[in-house]
Design a protein that fits this description.
single chain, two-stranded antiparallel ribbon, mainly alpha
């Protein structure tokens, strides 16, 4: 792209942004919600105000509905790839095949690097966990609207922005780490894993804290009128992309590291026989 084309592109996007800004001002938008910022931020963490009816059976957090939708999207995508794409793989890969092989290779290499003994199941798990974190974090960019029990529409958040979802992901990763310890060292592996009793909490709250911080910053930007034009788009997209990449990498890397540590077989040291003490020899002198 030469300089003239760059200038045209910059002018075009600037004109579009200006048109949207003028339109937003002329429509009389007040920027933000009628609720106070304290209520908005509290509900982003606790989800005690905006709840959704689950088939009329029970009122649940929006994060649970988002989790179901993300899981459904990933399962359908996996089935389509397995049935229609993978059987058509070629020796000379196309762009989509190269992308799939690159992503799988990244997680497989991470598993083999950190766990040289048992890495088959580990590679599959961190691929699934990393894909879920990445897809679930990007899901909030779609802005899927649902009706709450109070009768107003909200956008579904990222599934792991709910503390319950983050805790379950942390505990599941901890159980996978424990399974590696059992597979590598038997019952002793359980004790080896239980030494890091704070690991599920650290995994859970690290993931939850990172995602909810981005959501709160975006909520604040949307809330104030002076910042609610154009800026939320940039802030929301950047925060979401960064969190999707960083948190997927951090959790999968920590899981593979601890898995490799507890699954490493402890070799028994051979017992060294202690030399027996020399017998005292008493010399009896014969009288000549």
């Amino acid at each position: 792209m030469d300089k003239k084309e760059r200038r045209k592109a910059i002018i075009f996007f600037s004109a579009v942004a200006l048109i949207f800004m003028i339109g937003a001002i002329l429509t009389g938008g007040h920027g933000g919600e009628e609720e106070s910022v304290q209520v908005v931020m509290r509900d982003a963490v606790m989800h005690d105000v905006n709840r959704i009816s689950l088939f009329g059976l029970k009122d649940v957090n929006p994060g649970l509905i988002a989790g179901f939708m993300v899981s459904g999207i990933m399962i359908i995508f996996a089935l389509i790839c397995r049935i229609f794409v993978i059987p058509r793989f070629k020796m000379v890969p196309g762009k989509f095949q190269m992308l799939l092989e690159m992503v799988v290779g990244i997680f497989d290499g991470m598993a083999k690097t950190n766990s040289k003994h048992l890495n088959g199941f580990l590679g599959a798990y961190i691929f699934a966990a990393g894909s879920y974190i990445f897809t679930g974090t990007l899901f909030e960019l779609l802005g899927v609207q649902v009706m709450t029990t109070a009768g107003h529409a909200i956008s579904l958040p990222a599934p792991l922005a709910d503390i319950n979802g983050a805790i379950m992901m942390g505990c599941l990763s901890y159980l996978v780490i424990m399974s590696g310890g059992i597979a590598g060292n038997g019952i002793k592996g359980i004790g080896k894993t239980l030494k890091d009793f704070s690991l599920p909490l650290s995994l859970s709250f690290r993931l939850f804290g990172a995602l909810i911080s981005g959501a709160l910053v975006t909520e604040l930007v949307y809330y104030y009128t002076s910042m609610s034009y154009v800026v939320p788009v940039i802030v929301g997209v950047l925060f979401t992309l960064l969190h999707a990449l960083i948190q997927a990498y951090v959790l999968t890397m920590l899981t593979s590291l601890f898995y490799g540590e507890v699954s490493e077989k402890v070799e028994k040291k051979p017992k060294v026989k202690k030399p027996r003490g020399k017998k005292r020899v008493t010399v009896v002198k014969q009288n000549t």
